[in-house]
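Because discrete structure vocabularies remain unfamiliar, we turn briefly to a single example record, giving the amino acid sequence and backbone structure tokens:
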Amino acid sequence: MTINLISFASPLHKATTLRGSHEAVLNELEKYYTVKLIDYKEMSKLDDDDFKVLFIASGGVEKLVIQQFEQLPRPTILLADGMQNSLAAAMEISTWLRQRGMRSEILHGELPAIIERMRILYSNFRTGRYLVGKRIGVIGPSSPWLVASHVDYLLAKRRWGVEYMDIPLEHVYERFQRVTDKEVSPACAAVASQALACREGSPGEIVKAMKLYRAIRQICEEEKLEAVTLSCFQLTEDLNTTGCLALSLLNDDGIMAGCEGDLQSIFTLMVAHALTGKEGFMANPSLINQRSNELVLAHCTTGLKLTDRYILRNHFETGKGVSIQGIIPTEDVTLLKCGGECLDEYYLSTGVLLENTNYVNLCRTQVRVKLDSPVTYFLKNPLGNHHIMIPGHHSEELNEFLQANTCKRME
């Protein structure tokens, strides 16, 4: 982690004494981060991928800062240790920026708190930069029942920098037909041998599912896709197989993959992975118990890396193909959903996974989760159907990032 400290000091404040005047804060930062102290006149040499913090080194620099308005990072982080009247100047600058609709924050106070806050702000910056230019493949149309999960492609690109790309299902079918059984036989054997059981899926069904994975993976490589969402029910009708295994393996490969052409959930998976480094379980809230504040989440696919063990099943709704009944560790979890046409709303809660259930009338992978926030959200104010479950408690970093991007939290 490299911090570019853009220093602003009054002409009355000699450059030779800048470090000496602020030795405590600079030394502490350098214990944890690589710090580059840069004069504001050199700011133009930095690019958009450089993490920048304005170091207000003295009073009397207000006009110097506002003269650089076009080059200032958005949001603007101001570091002021209070020496040489720096805090007073930072407060004046912050007010001026906010009056012009720019977000700003002053880092000041106890050094450990500054160090920790800098880490969070850097994480926000890194995730925001990661999303810019990322390509999401939308293979086939969204499922017709996802009436509240639309995303405006243009607004999403303007807000987050992500690019949704429509890809016809026929492109998958063409590649699927070209993949031979011999090409996928070793991968089929590996997946089957590591399964706890193969309850319904025949060897032939596993081969077809693996050929589909290979076809979608080829498209991801050709189109340079970081994520993909699949119109899986239409595909099941056309190819007589399911995308459950393909999506599972793509997630394990680090290519975020979601079901049913759900545009909001695939973005949620990307944000979760960028901030936490973990893949998520995209699922339907299927049963809710208000008295115990619990819900059951269920879907027919999950990344194999999320599971302790897994069983190969057929698809719940259609009885076709291969799906995953994953046995996911009982541990702390986080539930997340980004929603809205320009992805400016979100739901977030921590909880604990209590058990893996086995209801006969639900999708194959099922988990019962006790939440830390009221489950009434799902009945009174939900952001659509699918929600994403992530291993571990990650509410702080997720909330910080989404709040920093002016998203509205739904509860």
Q: What stands out?
A: The chain has a mean pLDDT of 93.
